[in-house]
Amino acid sequence: MKLLSFLLLGVIAANAASDKLVIDALDFKMDDKKGISIFTGDVKMKMSKDRLNAQKVEIFFKDTNDGKTPTKYIATGKVDFVINTEEKHFIGNGEKLIYEPAKQKYQVIGNGYLEDVNTKRKIYGEEIFVDQVSGEASVKGTEKKPVRFIINLDNNDNTKENN
Predict the structure, then answer these.
(1) pLDDT per residue as tens digits for the range 118-159
(2) Which domains does the chain possess?
(3) Mean pLDDT estimate for the chain
(4) What angle do CA 30, 84, 145 make, to 5 degrees?
(5) Contacts of 15 (CB under 8 A, 6+ apart)
(6) What is the chain's alpha carbon radius of gyration, rounded to the nearest angstrom?
(7) Residue 49 DSSP code
């Protein structure tokens, strides 16, 4: 399901060699032994036309031959993002965003919302999960907040017949 395979952190990992990643935050902590960098307080990440805003972003690393490689990103606290690929333009938000670059798995947790701006497709749910490798995606809701999927249908044929 290509609609969901777009989250910002995936774009960051894929383009890190060619684009500049800029992270602004009020506070930064790093624990090299544990392999984690933590940005807190009005965190703003940007690369090219892509954006991510959150209150906290944790980046987990592992040692490789090329230095340190990110293994997981966790953004929390009023997370919102804008993603632009060659063919797509996406916006979204949630309370928590998790991305695992090696597995190409994404989760938007808590009040999740994703929109393909070009097609006007919108998804709402409490947990949105995407596995880019397998192409599988799932969305979970609750009794009070069921999953909602909105597609704008092209009814041009109907309007032509009615004129």
Answers:
(1) 888 888 999 988 776 776 778 899 888 899 888 878 766 544
(2) 8-162 (2.60.450.10)
(3) 79
(4) 80
(5) 47, 48
(6) 18
(7) T
